[in-house]
Design a protein that fits this description.
3-stranded antiparallel β-sheet; single chain
Length: about 90
């Protein structure tokens, strides 16, 4: 009788690392400012750090035919884009 070997990944398995309890935070709307704030399980406001804004732009890049083609004009034969992501630092 032939036995099937265990899958290769099972030899790498181990128990999960011990965990800690994460406090429960709840987003609520401040009735005066109409802005979301985070409160802990005791109703205290929690500071979540600075949050900024970001913008995404995409700049096209071209590849051309090279020297001597198209009468000296470099007409693109392939086109793609390079994304950029600019982060602004928020103020608390």
């Amino acid at each position: 009788m032939t036995t099937t070997p265990a899958p290769w990944g099972t030899g790498r398995m181990a128990p999960y690392a011990p965990t800690t309890t994460v406090p429960q935070y709840t987003p609520v709307i401040d009735p005066e400012t109409q802005i979301a704030v985070i409160v802990d399980e005791h109703g205290r406001t929690v500071e979540m750090g600075a949050h900024g804004t970001s913008t995404n732009t995409s700049t096209p890049t071209n590849t051309g035919g090279g020297d001597g083609q198209n009468g000296g004009q470099n007409t693109p034969t392939d086109m793609d884009s390079m994304p950029a992501n600019d982060q602004d630092q928020g103020t608390g």
